[in-house]
Design brief:
The protein is built from ten helices and two strands, in the order αααααααααββα. It is mainly α. The protein has a two-stranded antiparallel ribbon with strand order 1-2. Helix 1 runs antiparallel to helix 2, helix 3 packs antiparallel against helix 5 and helix 6 packs across helix 7.
């Protein structure tokens, strides 16, 4: 995403008539790594660059406005669409985290609450003893028939996508006790 923001910004600055579009594309690329403050700093920089390099006042605001538009498109549509398929957090946990960290640290805690919650989710997804907490993290109910749950019940399984719903794996198990456990799910 950062590369796309940098290329879009370089194109915009070339169209607006700001000198050295590769420099401004690189600046936008690097500023996009800084959450929240990066785009704000970028808007100020592009506003100053526009005021110093473009004579008409309304055109001087154009680079900063278009840079802000690029970030709004990237931050509100493109990135959430890419992340929504792979990364979901229960909305109730987000609100509880926001309230808790605002109570603990004030406004900085509120700003950092969701990133800290996301980091905690990523860590709990990767550490085997914490995988059971995935029930709390998911926003779509209890994931009883997911692959990790089946593997946890019976170690390594042969999962085949046969059956009614391709997202729910079918299981081939020779052990009658495991069959009984899976029927309860």
């Amino acid at each position: 995403m950062n590369l796309a923001v940098g290329l879009a910004t370089a194109t915009i600055t070339a169209i607006c008539g700001v000198g050295d579009p590769m420099l401004w594309g690189t600046v936008a690329f690097l500023l996009n790594y800084i959450p929240i403050l990066g785009p704000m700093i970028g808007v100020v920089i592009f506003l100053l660059v526009g005021l110093l390099s473009i004579s008409a006042l309304w055109q001087a605001f154009l680079p900063a406005g278009l840079y802000l538009l690029i970030h709004l498109i990237e931050g509100e549509t493109a990135t959430p669409m890419l992340l929504a398929r792979r990364f979901t957090i229960n909305p109730v946990l987000v609100v509880v985290s926001l309230v808790f960290w605002y109570w603990m640290w004030g406004v900085p805690g509120a700003i950092l609450s969701t990133p800290m919650l996301a980091i905690t989710k990523i860590i709990s997804d990767r550490i085997r003893p914490l995988m059971g907490s995935v029930i709390l993290w998911k926003g779509r109910g209890f994931p009883f028939r997911t692959e990790w749950r089946l593997r946890r019940l019976h170690g390594s399984l042969n999962l085949r996508n046969i059956g009614r719903d391709p997202s729910l794996p079918e299981v081939q198990i020779d052990d009658p006790l495991s069959r009984l456990r899976l029927r309860r799910l």
